[in-house]
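Course exercise 7: structure representation. Students receive a sequence record and must write out the corresponding structure in token form. The form below is the worked example handed out in class, using Pentatricopeptide repeat-containing protein (516 residues). Read each field label carefully; the graders check that inputs and outputs are placed in the correct fields and that the protein name is recorded exactly as given.

STUDENT ID: A-19
EXERCISE PROTEIN: Pentatricopeptide repeat-containing protein
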Amino acid sequence: MPRVQNQLHFPSINTNETKHPSSTTLPAKFKMLALYTRHTTRNTHFPTLSHTLTTTSPPPPDSSNVIATLAPNTSPKTIPQTLLAHPVQWTPDLVNKTLKLLWNHGPKALQFFSALHRHPTYTHPTSSFDHAVDIVARMRDYKTLWTLVAQMRARRLGPTRKTFAIITERFVAAGKPDRAVKIFLSMHQHGCQPDLNSFNTLLDVLCKSKRAEMAYRLFKISRGRFRADTVSYNIIANGYCLIKRTPKALEIMKEMVERGLEPSLTTYNIMLKGFFRAGQIKEAWEFFLEMKRRECEIDVVTYTTVVHGFGVAGEVKKARKVFDEMVGAGVLPSVATYTALIQVLCKKDSVENAELVFEEMVRKGYAPNSTTYTVLIRGFCHAEKMDRAIEYLERMEDDECEPNVQMYNVVIRYYCDAGEIEKGLEMFDKMGSGHCLPNLDTYNILVNAMFVRKKSDDLLVAGKLLLEMVERGFLPRKFIFNRVLNGLLLTGNQDFAKEILRLQSKCGRLPRQFRL
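STUDENT ANSWER:
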């Protein structure tokens, strides 16, 4: 094996040549975006952290403050200096928490990982390497990915089956399922032997990306290598249900029984949900009644599926009736059940009734999760009651339920759709200064919103957002690049357009190579 260097160098993305307009040239309402013009330089090699990073004298700084500082206030190239200025006793849990926080800022997360790579007392565990692998794979920097895998093997930290599950999932998400299968089949070359669980994981990834046929072919040709279990068949059946091929899913169930495997309650729940998803409401109800006749041990997941299925089909009264029947049958609703009912009421009835169910849920001692809040807030947004949506967003924070990126994206999208772009930008600003960094969808929502008013100032903001997307390791579509470019040209911002064109032509769509 070739010698692997101990020090990782993650040069940050090169946008240094891009000299876009200063925030002082923008109207006051757009000055908040000045803090979104952080640039980094390529091929920056960081010094190894010295012993000063180790906490040697009390009291140590609050680690949460250091993490909060890393998220909005530093550029990737200054992370080593930031860590030196804020010595912390790093632990695997704390490092993993920081990597998760920085996940939507890939370059910064990788520089943080690199800066701790030769810490005198801290050593990255397998879990931190897995986070780094996930980030570089999401950025499609495959060269760095395999270098990290080699580092793991050199340090005898892996790669593990979980590492390969992450890699194959990212390749499938990037539209490379054949490559994902080849990687799975080559796991043994990296010192990791696949087992039935890792095989089922690959099948699940393929099925959830709506490639059930491909998964089933792999399933059949691998019978001699892996002895399929009930979980394997459930995954394939669910894959066909996801593409609304319930007859094929029933065939898979039949094959399972013929091979001596007993369908589980999960199997029946998968089929039940498949019928509802395919719009086969009558078949779904008959299947549910058959489960009762056969005295299947119907659980909260079964009832939640029926409640949600009837609700989405517009049969709200029947959904509520099943919900009440569930309680009468001695099956306690879960947070997911209440969330499903709230969602269907928002979509098919009224947000006011959904709110009543939400308050009933709270009175009964249930703690709403981020998904519960998201569906209710989306309901208020859809009803054009943005003030109420913001009230629940604040209530969510008071309940110590952290808003997630999906939640912010919902609010930002509806503000922009309502023409209140400045409020959308304020929400975006709030994300950047807190514990929830914007993702690719956030940028796409805002960039597209900048074209609604056809103002020159808005197009400058779109350009700044595009640059930040690149800076944070996201892959803008060619359509987005070209739309911003054309918009800047049409509104007289030729200089800025030339810089973006130079970035696009120099790097394809995105400069994302990190050298180790």
